[in-house]
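From the pipeline queue, job 12 of 40. The input is one protein chain; the requested action is below.

Action: predict structure.
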Amino acid sequence: MKKFDFNIYLIGFMGAGKSTIAKALQSKLDMDVVEMDQMIVDEQGMAITDIFEKYGEDHFRDIETETLKKLKKKGSTIVSCGGGIVVRDENAGLMKEDGKVIFLTARPETILDRVKDSTDRPILNGNMNVEFIKGLMAKRKDKYMAVADHQVATDGKNSDEISDEIIGLLS
């Protein structure tokens, strides 16, 4: 299948399916995939939970913005963004300049089911419940919506269906 000459940024709450869908898109498009959180871990030499603990969320968000600037230069890349990428308005502008932004959504119950066994979600550690997830999703929803070019629901669909839907929206 064809390669897009712009970056595809997958945004959404943790557990919405960004990593899974990035891989599914890669298998259908001739494009690189970058797992943004993993890139940060590799470059910083420490886990995101450790960055949050040692330096705080603001420092992590600084690193995230710098990472976006690097990815902008790469081009034709599928980027699975961290769940909080939209917290900073500057990041929205960076993504819009060179790419298309896909907002992947899922119900809070689906999110909890997908992340409940994970220990590397610093925002959720100690708050692994539907109510907390629902509240955080509500806080971020407007920011996700403001930056998204397209919104794709992931509930009850497999990765093939979701990736085909995204390709259709971008073609």
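Job complete. Strands lie at 7-11, 32-35, 77-80, 99-105, 150-153.
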